[in-house]
Amino acid sequence: MTWIAPSTIAVEGLTKAYSDTTGVFDVDFQVPSGSVMALLGPNGAGKTTIVRILSTLLRPDAGSVRIAGIDALARPRDVQALIGLANQSSAIDDKLTGNANLAMFGRLHRLPWSTVRERARELLQLLELTDAAPKAVRTYSGGMRRKLDLAVSLIGRPSILFLDEPTTGLDPASRQALWRVIRRLVADGTTVLLTTQNLDEADALANEIAFIDRGKVIARGTPAELKARIGGRQVELTLSSAQRAAELATALDPFHATAEGAELHVAIGDRPTELRALLEALERSGAEPVDYQVHAPNLDDVYFHLTEHARDAAREVAMEAEG
Amino acid sequence: MSTVMQSRGSSPLWVLSDYVEMIKRSLRHIANDPDQLVTVTLQPILTLLIMNFLIGGAIQAGTRQSYVDFMLPGVFIVMAGFASVTTAISVSSDKVQGVVDRFRTLPMAKSAVISGQVISDMPRSLIGLGVTVGAGLVIGFRSPAGVGAWAAAIGITLLVTFALSWLAAVIGLLGGSVEATQQIAGLIIIPTFLSNAVVPTATMPAWLRVVVANQPLSQAIDCIRALLAGTSLGDHLWIALSEMVAIIAVAFVAATLLFRRQAARSA
Q1: What is the pTM of this model?
Q2: How distant is the Cα of A191 from the closest Cα of chain B, in angstroms?
Q3: What's the CA gap between B250 and B244, in Å, rounded?
Q4: With an 8 Å Cβ cutoff, is A99 touching chain B?
Q5: pLDDT tens per residue across span A264-280
Q6: pLDDT tens digit sequence for A194-205
Q7: N or C terminus: which one in chain B shows less Cβ crowding within 10 Å?
Q8: What is the crossing angle of helices A142-154 and A98-108, to 10°?
Q9: Any CB–CB contact under 8 A between A80 and chain B?
Q10: Is B212 within 8 Å of B195 (Cβ atoms)?
Protein backbone atom coordinates (compact mmCIF):
# COMPACT_ATOMS: atom_id res chain seq x y z
CA MET A 1 0.00 0.00 0.00
CA THR A 2 1.36 3.41 -0.93
CA TRP A 3 1.27 6.24 1.53
CA ILE A 4 -0.72 9.24 0.35
CA ALA A 5 0.02 12.70 1.69
CA PRO A 6 -2.93 14.04 3.72
CA SER A 7 -3.89 16.94 1.44
CA THR A 8 -3.33 16.12 -2.15
CA ILE A 9 -5.31 16.37 -5.30
CA ALA A 10 -4.86 13.56 -7.80
CA VAL A 11 -6.73 13.73 -11.08
CA GLU A 12 -6.52 11.02 -13.73
CA GLY A 13 -8.09 10.79 -17.17
CA LEU A 14 -10.70 13.39 -16.28
CA THR A 15 -13.22 13.79 -19.12
CA LYS A 16 -16.45 15.72 -19.31
CA ALA A 17 -17.60 16.38 -22.85
CA TYR A 18 -20.24 18.97 -23.69
CA SER A 19 -19.57 18.60 -27.41
CA ASP A 20 -16.65 17.42 -29.59
CA THR A 21 -14.70 20.59 -28.85
CA THR A 22 -16.04 21.92 -25.53
CA GLY A 23 -15.50 20.30 -22.17
CA VAL A 24 -12.53 18.64 -20.52
CA PHE A 25 -10.62 15.81 -22.17
CA ASP A 26 -8.34 13.30 -20.46
CA VAL A 27 -6.85 15.71 -17.92
CA ASP A 28 -4.20 14.42 -15.49
CA PHE A 29 -2.44 16.29 -12.72
CA GLN A 30 -1.41 16.06 -9.06
CA VAL A 31 -1.07 18.79 -6.50
CA PRO A 32 1.28 17.98 -3.61
CA SER A 33 0.19 18.82 -0.10
CA GLY A 34 0.70 22.46 0.87
CA SER A 35 1.45 23.69 -2.65
CA VAL A 36 -0.35 25.89 -5.18
CA MET A 37 -1.37 24.72 -8.64
CA ALA A 38 -2.66 27.28 -11.14
CA LEU A 39 -4.83 26.31 -14.07
CA LEU A 40 -4.03 28.96 -16.64
CA GLY A 41 -5.95 29.43 -19.84
CA PRO A 42 -8.31 31.56 -21.90
CA ASN A 43 -12.08 31.83 -21.38
CA GLY A 44 -13.92 28.61 -22.14
CA ALA A 45 -10.76 26.49 -21.87
CA GLY A 46 -12.41 24.21 -19.30
CA LYS A 47 -10.80 25.55 -16.11
CA THR A 48 -14.10 26.12 -14.30
CA THR A 49 -15.38 22.70 -15.37
CA ILE A 50 -12.33 21.08 -13.76
CA VAL A 51 -12.86 23.05 -10.52
CA ARG A 52 -16.56 22.14 -10.48
CA ILE A 53 -15.74 18.44 -10.84
CA LEU A 54 -13.07 18.56 -8.13
CA SER A 55 -15.37 20.40 -5.73
CA THR A 56 -18.11 17.73 -6.14
CA LEU A 57 -20.48 20.02 -8.07
CA LEU A 58 -20.22 18.16 -11.34
CA ARG A 59 -19.82 14.48 -12.22
CA PRO A 60 -17.29 13.68 -14.95
CA ASP A 61 -18.02 11.28 -17.83
CA ALA A 62 -14.79 9.43 -17.09
CA GLY A 63 -11.69 9.58 -14.95
CA SER A 64 -10.90 9.58 -11.27
CA VAL A 65 -10.56 12.31 -8.65
CA ARG A 66 -8.90 11.70 -5.29
CA ILE A 67 -8.91 14.45 -2.73
CA ALA A 68 -6.68 13.75 0.28
CA GLY A 69 -6.79 10.14 -0.77
CA ILE A 70 -10.60 10.02 -0.80
CA ASP A 71 -12.44 9.05 -3.97
CA ALA A 72 -14.42 12.25 -4.59
CA LEU A 73 -16.89 10.57 -6.93
CA ALA A 74 -17.77 7.79 -4.50
CA ARG A 75 -17.66 9.76 -1.24
CA PRO A 76 -18.46 13.40 -2.04
CA ARG A 77 -19.72 14.10 1.48
CA ASP A 78 -16.35 13.20 3.06
CA VAL A 79 -14.58 15.41 0.53
CA GLN A 80 -16.98 18.30 1.24
CA ALA A 81 -15.80 18.34 4.85
CA LEU A 82 -12.22 19.01 3.67
CA ILE A 83 -12.63 21.55 0.90
CA GLY A 84 -13.49 25.21 0.46
CA LEU A 85 -14.63 26.76 -2.82
CA ALA A 86 -14.62 30.41 -3.84
CA ASN A 87 -16.42 30.82 -7.13
CA GLN A 88 -16.18 33.52 -9.77
CA SER A 89 -19.52 34.89 -8.61
CA SER A 90 -19.58 35.84 -4.94
CA ALA A 91 -21.77 33.04 -3.66
CA ILE A 92 -22.81 34.68 -0.42
CA ASP A 93 -26.20 35.82 0.83
CA ASP A 94 -26.36 39.56 0.16
CA LYS A 95 -29.56 40.03 2.17
CA LEU A 96 -27.72 38.99 5.33
CA THR A 97 -24.87 40.68 7.18
CA GLY A 98 -21.27 39.50 6.94
CA ASN A 99 -21.55 38.04 10.44
CA ALA A 100 -24.76 36.18 9.64
CA ASN A 101 -23.21 34.70 6.49
CA LEU A 102 -20.20 33.39 8.39
CA ALA A 103 -22.38 32.02 11.20
CA MET A 104 -24.76 30.27 8.80
CA PHE A 105 -22.11 28.69 6.58
CA GLY A 106 -20.07 27.72 9.66
CA ARG A 107 -23.06 25.93 11.16
CA LEU A 108 -23.81 24.25 7.83
CA HIS A 109 -20.24 22.96 8.01
CA ARG A 110 -21.57 21.34 11.17
CA LEU A 111 -19.14 23.05 13.50
CA PRO A 112 -20.00 23.84 17.12
CA TRP A 113 -21.08 27.42 17.85
CA SER A 114 -17.93 28.25 19.82
CA THR A 115 -15.71 27.16 16.92
CA VAL A 116 -17.79 29.13 14.41
CA ARG A 117 -17.60 32.31 16.50
CA GLU A 118 -13.87 32.01 17.11
CA ARG A 119 -13.08 31.27 13.49
CA ALA A 120 -15.35 34.03 12.16
CA ARG A 121 -13.51 36.55 14.33
CA GLU A 122 -10.16 35.22 13.11
CA LEU A 123 -11.16 35.39 9.43
CA LEU A 124 -12.71 38.85 9.66
CA GLN A 125 -9.42 40.05 11.13
CA LEU A 126 -7.31 38.27 8.51
CA LEU A 127 -9.36 39.79 5.68
CA GLU A 128 -9.78 43.21 7.32
CA LEU A 129 -13.57 42.95 7.36
CA THR A 130 -14.21 43.40 11.08
CA ASP A 131 -15.84 46.83 10.66
CA ALA A 132 -18.01 45.72 7.76
CA ALA A 133 -19.18 42.48 9.39
CA PRO A 134 -22.34 43.84 11.08
CA LYS A 135 -23.52 45.46 7.81
CA ALA A 136 -25.68 43.87 5.11
CA VAL A 137 -23.60 42.39 2.30
CA ARG A 138 -25.56 44.30 -0.36
CA THR A 139 -23.87 47.50 0.86
CA TYR A 140 -20.38 46.02 0.27
CA SER A 141 -18.02 47.01 -2.56
CA GLY A 142 -16.94 44.38 -5.08
CA GLY A 143 -13.63 43.87 -3.30
CA MET A 144 -15.31 43.44 0.09
CA ARG A 145 -17.76 40.92 -1.33
CA ARG A 146 -14.89 38.91 -2.77
CA LYS A 147 -13.11 38.97 0.59
CA LEU A 148 -16.21 37.87 2.49
CA ASP A 149 -16.74 35.13 -0.10
CA LEU A 150 -13.22 33.91 0.64
CA ALA A 151 -13.86 34.14 4.39
CA VAL A 152 -17.01 32.01 3.96
CA SER A 153 -14.99 29.50 1.91
CA LEU A 154 -12.49 29.30 4.78
CA ILE A 155 -14.96 28.98 7.66
CA GLY A 156 -14.73 25.18 7.59
CA ARG A 157 -10.91 25.55 7.79
CA PRO A 158 -10.44 23.58 4.58
CA SER A 159 -7.16 21.79 3.97
CA ILE A 160 -7.83 22.08 0.24
CA LEU A 161 -9.02 25.35 -1.27
CA PHE A 162 -10.39 25.87 -4.77
CA LEU A 163 -10.27 29.42 -6.08
CA ASP A 164 -11.95 30.07 -9.41
CA GLU A 165 -10.52 33.31 -10.80
CA PRO A 166 -10.16 34.81 -7.32
CA THR A 167 -9.07 38.29 -8.39
CA THR A 168 -10.92 38.86 -11.68
CA GLY A 169 -12.45 42.33 -11.58
CA LEU A 170 -10.53 43.47 -8.49
CA ASP A 171 -8.44 46.64 -8.31
CA PRO A 172 -4.66 46.20 -7.89
CA ALA A 173 -4.71 46.95 -4.14
CA SER A 174 -7.46 44.38 -3.41
CA ARG A 175 -5.67 41.91 -5.65
CA GLN A 176 -2.44 42.29 -3.68
CA ALA A 177 -4.35 41.98 -0.39
CA LEU A 178 -5.95 38.74 -1.58
CA TRP A 179 -2.61 37.36 -2.75
CA ARG A 180 -1.19 38.04 0.71
CA VAL A 181 -4.02 36.09 2.33
CA ILE A 182 -3.60 33.19 -0.08
CA ARG A 183 0.17 33.08 0.59
CA ARG A 184 -0.50 33.03 4.31
CA LEU A 185 -2.95 30.13 3.97
CA VAL A 186 -0.41 28.19 1.94
CA ALA A 187 2.29 28.92 4.51
CA ASP A 188 -0.05 27.40 7.09
CA GLY A 189 -0.31 24.21 5.06
CA THR A 190 -3.38 24.69 2.83
CA THR A 191 -3.27 23.13 -0.62
CA VAL A 192 -4.63 25.54 -3.25
CA LEU A 193 -5.91 24.96 -6.75
CA LEU A 194 -6.68 28.22 -8.50
CA THR A 195 -7.74 29.19 -12.00
CA THR A 196 -6.66 32.39 -13.65
CA GLN A 197 -6.32 34.09 -17.00
CA ASN A 198 -3.46 36.15 -15.69
CA LEU A 199 0.12 34.89 -15.99
CA ASP A 200 1.31 37.37 -13.35
CA GLU A 201 -1.12 35.89 -10.85
CA ALA A 202 -0.02 32.33 -11.62
CA ASP A 203 3.59 33.50 -11.44
CA ALA A 204 3.06 35.23 -8.09
CA LEU A 205 1.22 32.38 -6.37
CA ALA A 206 1.76 29.02 -8.01
CA ASN A 207 4.40 26.35 -7.53
CA GLU A 208 3.18 24.74 -10.70
CA ILE A 209 1.11 25.87 -13.67
CA ALA A 210 -1.00 23.72 -15.97
CA PHE A 211 -1.85 25.49 -19.19
CA ILE A 212 -5.35 24.54 -20.30
CA ASP A 213 -6.59 25.02 -23.84
CA ARG A 214 -9.76 23.58 -25.33
CA GLY A 215 -10.17 21.20 -22.40
CA LYS A 216 -6.68 19.75 -22.49
CA VAL A 217 -3.51 20.32 -20.52
CA ILE A 218 -1.15 21.55 -23.27
CA ALA A 219 1.79 22.44 -21.03
CA ARG A 220 2.82 21.97 -17.42
CA GLY A 221 5.67 23.19 -15.31
CA THR A 222 6.90 25.69 -12.80
CA PRO A 223 6.37 29.35 -13.73
CA ALA A 224 10.08 29.63 -14.58
CA GLU A 225 9.98 26.58 -16.83
CA LEU A 226 6.93 27.82 -18.70
CA LYS A 227 8.35 31.28 -19.22
CA ALA A 228 11.64 29.84 -20.39
CA ARG A 229 9.75 27.95 -23.08
CA ILE A 230 8.35 31.19 -24.48
CA GLY A 231 11.50 33.22 -24.10
CA GLY A 232 12.04 35.62 -21.24
CA ARG A 233 11.43 39.01 -22.87
CA GLN A 234 10.00 40.29 -26.09
CA VAL A 235 11.82 43.22 -27.72
CA GLU A 236 10.01 45.07 -30.49
CA LEU A 237 12.04 47.35 -32.74
CA THR A 238 10.45 49.70 -35.28
CA LEU A 239 12.59 50.49 -38.33
CA SER A 240 12.07 53.16 -40.98
CA SER A 241 11.04 50.60 -43.61
CA ALA A 242 10.15 46.95 -44.11
CA GLN A 243 13.36 46.47 -46.06
CA ARG A 244 15.48 47.80 -43.18
CA ALA A 245 13.63 45.48 -40.82
CA ALA A 246 14.36 42.46 -43.02
CA GLU A 247 18.02 43.45 -43.29
CA LEU A 248 18.32 43.81 -39.53
CA ALA A 249 16.67 40.42 -38.98
CA THR A 250 19.49 38.87 -41.02
CA ALA A 251 22.16 40.95 -39.22
CA LEU A 252 20.87 39.80 -35.83
CA ASP A 253 21.20 36.16 -36.91
CA PRO A 254 22.10 34.49 -33.56
CA PHE A 255 18.97 36.01 -32.00
CA HIS A 256 15.52 34.68 -32.79
CA ALA A 257 14.28 37.71 -34.76
CA THR A 258 11.24 37.90 -37.04
CA ALA A 259 10.35 40.89 -39.20
CA GLU A 260 6.74 41.89 -39.66
CA GLY A 261 6.49 44.95 -41.90
CA ALA A 262 8.72 47.65 -40.47
CA GLU A 263 8.60 45.92 -37.07
CA LEU A 264 11.07 43.42 -35.75
CA HIS A 265 10.25 41.00 -32.91
CA VAL A 266 13.19 39.64 -30.97
CA ALA A 267 12.83 37.10 -28.17
CA ILE A 268 15.56 37.19 -25.55
CA GLY A 269 16.11 35.53 -22.18
CA ASP A 270 15.35 36.80 -18.71
CA ARG A 271 18.87 37.98 -17.87
CA PRO A 272 19.84 41.63 -18.37
CA THR A 273 23.09 40.50 -20.04
CA GLU A 274 21.04 39.16 -22.94
CA LEU A 275 19.56 42.61 -23.47
CA ARG A 276 23.08 44.03 -23.48
CA ALA A 277 24.15 41.46 -26.06
CA LEU A 278 21.23 42.46 -28.26
CA LEU A 279 22.07 46.14 -27.95
CA GLU A 280 25.70 45.46 -28.85
CA ALA A 281 24.67 43.45 -31.90
CA LEU A 282 22.35 46.29 -32.84
CA GLU A 283 25.23 48.76 -32.52
CA ARG A 284 27.45 46.61 -34.76
CA SER A 285 24.73 46.34 -37.43
CA GLY A 286 24.60 50.12 -37.67
CA ALA A 287 20.78 50.04 -37.86
CA GLU A 288 18.90 52.95 -36.40
CA PRO A 289 15.49 51.87 -35.02
CA VAL A 290 12.99 54.73 -34.67
CA ASP A 291 11.17 53.17 -31.71
CA TYR A 292 11.42 50.19 -29.34
CA GLN A 293 9.50 48.29 -26.66
CA VAL A 294 10.50 45.62 -24.18
CA HIS A 295 7.89 43.54 -22.41
CA ALA A 296 7.63 40.38 -20.38
CA PRO A 297 5.67 37.58 -22.02
CA ASN A 298 2.00 37.84 -21.18
CA LEU A 299 -0.78 35.31 -21.46
CA ASP A 300 -1.14 36.15 -25.16
CA ASP A 301 2.49 35.25 -25.81
CA VAL A 302 2.16 31.97 -23.89
CA TYR A 303 -1.08 31.16 -25.62
CA PHE A 304 0.16 31.91 -29.14
CA HIS A 305 3.46 30.21 -28.51
CA LEU A 306 1.88 27.04 -27.15
CA THR A 307 -0.94 26.81 -29.67
CA GLU A 308 1.57 27.40 -32.50
CA HIS A 309 3.58 24.50 -31.14
CA ALA A 310 0.46 22.37 -31.04
CA ARG A 311 -0.33 23.29 -34.65
CA ASP A 312 3.25 22.56 -35.76
CA ALA A 313 3.13 19.17 -34.09
CA ALA A 314 -0.19 18.38 -35.74
CA ARG A 315 1.22 19.39 -39.13
CA GLU A 316 4.27 17.15 -38.67
CA VAL A 317 2.06 14.22 -37.77
CA ALA A 318 -0.09 14.88 -40.85
CA MET A 319 2.99 15.11 -43.11
CA GLU A 320 4.45 11.92 -41.71
CA ALA A 321 1.18 10.17 -42.38
CA GLU A 322 1.21 11.40 -45.97
CA GLY A 323 4.90 10.73 -46.58
CA MET B 1 -4.38 27.98 11.24
CA SER B 2 -3.93 24.26 11.24
CA THR B 3 -5.22 21.84 8.67
CA VAL B 4 -6.00 19.15 11.17
CA MET B 5 -9.19 17.42 10.17
CA GLN B 6 -12.09 18.42 12.38
CA SER B 7 -14.46 15.88 13.72
CA ARG B 8 -17.81 16.77 12.31
CA GLY B 9 -21.19 15.70 13.53
CA SER B 10 -23.27 13.38 11.42
CA SER B 11 -26.03 12.62 13.90
CA PRO B 12 -29.70 13.32 13.07
CA LEU B 13 -29.45 16.35 15.36
CA TRP B 14 -27.14 17.96 12.81
CA VAL B 15 -29.73 17.39 10.09
CA LEU B 16 -32.16 19.27 12.29
CA SER B 17 -29.55 22.00 12.75
CA ASP B 18 -29.19 22.29 8.94
CA TYR B 19 -32.95 22.84 8.67
CA VAL B 20 -32.91 25.37 11.50
CA GLU B 21 -30.15 27.36 9.77
CA MET B 22 -31.96 27.37 6.43
CA ILE B 23 -35.27 28.39 8.04
CA LYS B 24 -33.54 31.13 10.05
CA ARG B 25 -32.02 32.41 6.82
CA SER B 26 -35.41 32.73 5.09
CA LEU B 27 -36.98 34.37 8.13
CA ARG B 28 -34.19 36.95 8.17
CA HIS B 29 -34.87 37.58 4.49
CA ILE B 30 -38.50 38.35 5.28
CA ALA B 31 -37.46 40.77 8.02
CA ASN B 32 -34.80 42.45 5.85
CA ASP B 33 -36.68 42.52 2.59
CA PRO B 34 -39.37 45.22 2.29
CA ASP B 35 -40.86 43.54 -0.83
CA GLN B 36 -41.74 40.42 1.12
CA LEU B 37 -43.37 42.43 3.88
CA VAL B 38 -45.47 44.28 1.31
CA THR B 39 -46.52 40.92 -0.14
CA VAL B 40 -47.93 39.79 3.19
CA THR B 41 -49.36 43.08 4.48
CA LEU B 42 -50.32 45.69 1.89
CA GLN B 43 -51.25 43.20 -0.82
CA PRO B 44 -54.02 41.37 1.10
CA ILE B 45 -55.46 44.67 2.34
CA LEU B 46 -55.58 46.14 -1.18
CA THR B 47 -56.99 42.95 -2.65
CA LEU B 48 -59.73 42.89 -0.02
CA LEU B 49 -60.62 46.55 -0.55
CA ILE B 50 -60.69 46.28 -4.34
CA MET B 51 -62.71 43.07 -4.34
CA ASN B 52 -65.18 44.29 -1.74
CA PHE B 53 -65.82 47.91 -2.74
CA LEU B 54 -64.90 48.08 -6.44
CA ILE B 55 -66.08 44.74 -7.82
CA GLY B 56 -68.03 43.27 -4.90
CA GLY B 57 -71.24 45.13 -5.54
CA ALA B 58 -71.53 43.64 -9.02
CA ILE B 59 -70.80 40.08 -7.86
CA GLN B 60 -73.02 40.26 -4.75
CA ALA B 61 -76.07 39.19 -6.79
CA GLY B 62 -74.87 35.59 -7.23
CA THR B 63 -73.98 34.83 -3.62
CA ARG B 64 -76.23 33.84 -0.79
CA GLN B 65 -73.88 35.16 1.90
CA SER B 66 -72.69 38.74 2.29
CA TYR B 67 -69.95 39.22 -0.29
CA VAL B 68 -67.13 39.84 2.21
CA ASP B 69 -68.00 36.59 4.02
CA PHE B 70 -67.96 34.77 0.67
CA MET B 71 -64.77 36.31 -0.64
CA LEU B 72 -62.46 36.31 2.40
CA PRO B 73 -61.63 32.54 2.30
CA GLY B 74 -60.89 32.95 -1.41
CA VAL B 75 -58.48 35.80 -0.69
CA PHE B 76 -56.57 33.44 1.66
CA ILE B 77 -55.76 31.28 -1.35
CA VAL B 78 -55.15 34.18 -3.77
CA MET B 79 -52.58 35.46 -1.24
CA ALA B 80 -50.93 32.03 -1.14
CA GLY B 81 -50.52 32.35 -4.90
CA PHE B 82 -48.91 35.78 -4.65
CA ALA B 83 -46.59 34.62 -1.87
CA SER B 84 -45.37 31.66 -3.90
CA VAL B 85 -44.03 34.02 -6.59
CA THR B 86 -41.62 35.38 -3.95
CA THR B 87 -40.52 31.83 -3.17
CA ALA B 88 -39.75 31.10 -6.82
CA ILE B 89 -37.72 34.32 -7.07
CA SER B 90 -35.71 33.48 -3.92
CA VAL B 91 -34.89 29.98 -5.15
CA SER B 92 -33.96 31.31 -8.59
CA SER B 93 -31.70 34.10 -7.35
CA ASP B 94 -29.88 31.63 -5.07
CA LYS B 95 -29.29 29.45 -8.09
CA VAL B 96 -28.17 32.28 -10.38
CA GLN B 97 -25.84 33.84 -7.77
CA GLY B 98 -24.12 30.54 -7.10
CA VAL B 99 -25.40 30.30 -3.51
CA VAL B 100 -27.04 26.95 -4.36
CA ASP B 101 -23.64 25.74 -5.59
CA ARG B 102 -22.06 26.74 -2.31
CA PHE B 103 -24.70 24.79 -0.37
CA ARG B 104 -24.02 21.82 -2.61
CA THR B 105 -20.32 21.82 -1.68
CA LEU B 106 -21.08 21.80 2.07
CA PRO B 107 -21.20 18.64 4.16
CA MET B 108 -24.83 19.47 5.07
CA ALA B 109 -28.16 17.72 4.46
CA LYS B 110 -28.89 18.99 0.93
CA SER B 111 -32.64 18.50 1.38
CA ALA B 112 -32.63 21.40 3.85
CA VAL B 113 -31.83 23.95 1.13
CA ILE B 114 -35.18 23.95 -0.68
CA SER B 115 -37.24 22.53 2.19
CA GLY B 116 -36.01 25.26 4.53
CA GLN B 117 -37.19 27.88 2.07
CA VAL B 118 -40.61 26.28 1.67
CA ILE B 119 -41.07 25.68 5.41
CA SER B 120 -40.23 29.29 6.23
CA ASP B 121 -43.02 30.39 3.89
CA MET B 122 -45.41 29.13 6.58
CA PRO B 123 -44.74 31.79 9.25
CA ARG B 124 -44.76 34.41 6.52
CA SER B 125 -48.18 33.33 5.37
CA LEU B 126 -49.43 33.22 8.95
CA ILE B 127 -48.58 36.94 9.18
CA GLY B 128 -50.44 37.43 5.89
CA LEU B 129 -53.44 35.48 7.17
CA GLY B 130 -53.56 37.59 10.32
CA VAL B 131 -53.52 40.81 8.28
CA THR B 132 -56.18 39.47 5.90
CA VAL B 133 -58.56 38.43 8.70
CA GLY B 134 -57.96 41.71 10.57
CA ALA B 135 -58.72 43.81 7.49
CA GLY B 136 -61.73 41.57 6.74
CA LEU B 137 -63.18 42.16 10.21
CA VAL B 138 -62.82 45.91 9.71
CA ILE B 139 -64.85 45.86 6.47
CA GLY B 140 -67.59 43.69 7.94
CA PHE B 141 -66.48 40.05 7.83
CA ARG B 142 -68.23 37.95 10.48
CA SER B 143 -67.96 34.23 11.19
CA PRO B 144 -69.81 31.90 13.56
CA ALA B 145 -66.87 29.43 13.51
CA GLY B 146 -65.33 28.20 16.74
CA VAL B 147 -61.64 27.70 17.54
CA GLY B 148 -61.56 24.22 16.02
CA ALA B 149 -63.08 25.34 12.72
CA TRP B 150 -60.71 28.31 12.55
CA ALA B 151 -57.73 26.06 13.23
CA ALA B 152 -58.87 23.68 10.48
CA ALA B 153 -59.38 26.59 8.05
CA ILE B 154 -55.91 27.94 8.79
CA GLY B 155 -54.45 24.44 8.47
CA ILE B 156 -55.96 23.97 5.00
CA THR B 157 -54.72 27.41 3.93
CA LEU B 158 -51.20 26.52 5.07
CA LEU B 159 -51.40 23.20 3.27
CA VAL B 160 -52.30 25.01 0.03
CA THR B 161 -49.49 27.51 0.64
CA PHE B 162 -47.08 24.61 1.19
CA ALA B 163 -48.17 22.97 -2.09
CA LEU B 164 -47.89 26.20 -4.09
CA SER B 165 -44.47 26.93 -2.53
CA TRP B 166 -43.16 23.55 -3.67
CA LEU B 167 -44.47 24.24 -7.17
CA ALA B 168 -42.78 27.65 -7.01
CA ALA B 169 -39.50 26.04 -5.92
CA VAL B 170 -39.66 23.75 -8.97
CA ILE B 171 -40.19 26.80 -11.19
CA GLY B 172 -37.31 28.59 -9.45
CA LEU B 173 -34.97 25.65 -10.10
CA LEU B 174 -36.10 25.36 -13.74
CA GLY B 175 -35.87 29.04 -14.70
CA GLY B 176 -32.73 30.30 -16.41
CA SER B 177 -32.78 33.85 -15.06
CA VAL B 178 -34.51 35.54 -12.14
CA GLU B 179 -36.58 37.64 -14.57
CA ALA B 180 -37.77 34.59 -16.53
CA THR B 181 -38.63 32.81 -13.28
CA GLN B 182 -40.68 35.79 -12.11
CA GLN B 183 -42.67 35.70 -15.37
CA ILE B 184 -43.32 31.96 -15.20
CA ALA B 185 -44.09 31.96 -11.46
CA GLY B 186 -46.67 34.68 -12.11
CA LEU B 187 -48.68 31.96 -13.86
CA ILE B 188 -49.37 30.35 -10.46
CA ILE B 189 -51.66 33.30 -9.72
CA ILE B 190 -53.95 32.45 -12.66
CA PRO B 191 -55.48 29.27 -11.17
CA THR B 192 -56.07 31.11 -7.87
CA PHE B 193 -58.37 33.48 -9.77
CA LEU B 194 -59.63 30.79 -12.18
CA SER B 195 -61.42 29.30 -9.19
CA ASN B 196 -64.37 30.06 -6.97
CA ALA B 197 -62.12 32.31 -4.83
CA VAL B 198 -63.78 35.64 -5.52
CA VAL B 199 -66.70 34.76 -7.81
CA PRO B 200 -69.46 32.18 -7.37
CA THR B 201 -69.45 29.51 -10.08
CA ALA B 202 -73.26 29.55 -10.48
CA THR B 203 -73.18 32.26 -13.18
CA MET B 204 -70.54 30.52 -15.31
CA PRO B 205 -71.33 28.51 -18.45
CA ALA B 206 -71.70 24.80 -17.61
CA TRP B 207 -68.39 23.65 -19.24
CA LEU B 208 -66.38 26.27 -17.41
CA ARG B 209 -68.19 25.65 -14.14
CA VAL B 210 -67.24 21.97 -14.21
CA VAL B 211 -63.55 22.88 -14.60
CA VAL B 212 -63.47 25.79 -12.18
CA ALA B 213 -65.54 24.26 -9.40
CA ASN B 214 -63.57 21.00 -9.38
CA GLN B 215 -60.00 22.23 -9.59
CA PRO B 216 -57.99 21.57 -6.40
CA LEU B 217 -57.85 25.19 -5.27
CA SER B 218 -61.64 25.55 -5.51
CA GLN B 219 -62.04 22.39 -3.43
CA ALA B 220 -59.77 23.88 -0.76
CA ILE B 221 -61.63 27.20 -0.86
CA ASP B 222 -64.97 25.37 -0.49
CA CYS B 223 -63.58 23.72 2.64
CA ILE B 224 -62.38 26.97 4.21
CA ARG B 225 -65.64 28.69 3.25
CA ALA B 226 -67.76 25.93 4.83
CA LEU B 227 -65.63 25.86 7.99
CA LEU B 228 -65.84 29.63 8.50
CA ALA B 229 -69.55 29.82 7.61
CA GLY B 230 -70.33 26.88 9.90
CA THR B 231 -71.92 24.85 7.07
CA SER B 232 -71.43 21.24 6.04
CA LEU B 233 -68.05 20.25 4.55
CA GLY B 234 -69.37 17.45 2.36
CA ASP B 235 -66.71 15.67 0.29
CA HIS B 236 -64.65 18.83 -0.13
CA LEU B 237 -62.30 18.12 2.76
CA TRP B 238 -61.12 14.69 1.60
CA ILE B 239 -60.88 15.74 -2.02
CA ALA B 240 -58.92 18.90 -1.11
CA LEU B 241 -56.59 17.08 1.29
CA SER B 242 -55.75 14.26 -1.11
CA GLU B 243 -55.24 16.63 -4.04
CA MET B 244 -52.92 18.91 -2.06
CA VAL B 245 -50.89 15.97 -0.76
CA ALA B 246 -50.58 14.67 -4.34
CA ILE B 247 -49.35 18.09 -5.59
CA ILE B 248 -46.82 18.29 -2.74
CA ALA B 249 -45.53 14.78 -3.42
CA VAL B 250 -45.06 15.41 -7.16
CA ALA B 251 -43.49 18.86 -6.68
CA PHE B 252 -41.20 17.57 -3.90
CA VAL B 253 -39.87 14.77 -6.07
CA ALA B 254 -39.45 17.15 -9.02
CA ALA B 255 -37.60 19.73 -6.90
CA THR B 256 -35.29 17.08 -5.41
CA LEU B 257 -34.43 15.68 -8.85
CA LEU B 258 -33.86 19.17 -10.28
CA PHE B 259 -31.62 20.10 -7.36
CA ARG B 260 -29.48 17.03 -8.00
CA ARG B 261 -29.55 17.36 -11.78
CA GLN B 262 -27.82 20.74 -11.60
CA ALA B 263 -24.68 18.64 -11.12
CA ALA B 264 -24.87 17.05 -14.53
CA ARG B 265 -26.05 20.11 -16.46
CA SER B 266 -24.08 23.19 -15.54
CA ALA B 267 -20.82 23.96 -17.31
Answers
A1: 0.81
A2: 10
A3: 10
A4: no
A5: 888 887 788 888 888 88
A6: 999 888 898 899
A7: C
A8: 30
A9: yes
A10: yes
